[in-house]
What does this fold into?
Amino acid sequence: MIKFDIDDLYLVQALDASVSMSAAATKLGVEDSSVSRRVKKIETIIGLPVIYRRGKFGLTAAGRRFLSMASTVLKEHDDFQRDIDLLKKGKNHLRIVGNSSIMFSDVPQVLEILRDRNPNIFITVDSGSMTEILKKIQENDADVGIVPEKSKIHGITFHKYRFDRLCIFAPISHPLAHQTSATLAEVAKYKLIGTHEGRQMSSLLLAMAKKQDLVLNYAMIVSNFDLQANIIAHNDMAVGIIFESVARRFEREHLIVGDSSQLSQSIKIVALNEEWATRDLYLVTPDPANTSQLATQFIGLLRERHRRFKTTSGRSS
It folds into this structure.
């Protein structure tokens, strides 16, 4: 039985990026006849042509479907090869994924200590939404995740490591900026700037507003907390609800900049006067039996920076 091999997959990628089979052969460093044989082999297996042989050169619909499959398999192959190369070099690999704004506040100092204790480790850090983070942990594409809330998911352990508070971030000219605190009902009187990065926060705010028969008026939704803070600081149009640690970091960074910015003097952090405004933050890993030693070290160092909590596991109901 004829089967695909890895070179067939690389060939289809090369065909997609070339203007002819001859150009694909040059790109791969093989003879034209080799490309022709492999194309015929692929078409024999799937029973459909993968390239147009008349008119403009390119992949057929079947070829493009094969390319999609090939790209997925090659990514996994490249990831596997990278991990093998790291093992050959005697390096351990720690893969971290989390909410980018939370990671800015917590991760850099901890990684410095971790590398001091493990000089040969290789670390990758990525960001994503909560859904993306949990999916990567489930599919073993990451070792540790950092998320702003807990879910009930089988096979994932949630480690509560600190809490944060939601606050109101307001331009200095805004009416709320002259208060020390405000309720959600007071915030609902004004336009808001939200963020995709805080989808869970947005859902929470909408749920709390619904309980109080309030309507939240979003003037703008942006990609992340840092962009949200910058837009609020530069405009008088709206306020935002944001983690206090993110707001304080923004404030500190612009105080360091000094007179060249003045942003720290144009914003105000106002307490959100609601019981639910205090939120727990979590580290997520596979269940303990599948958690790496490096991930365990990282969690221990990060929790040392904050209060110690007992580990709790999220299970599907």
Summary: The mean pLDDT is 84.
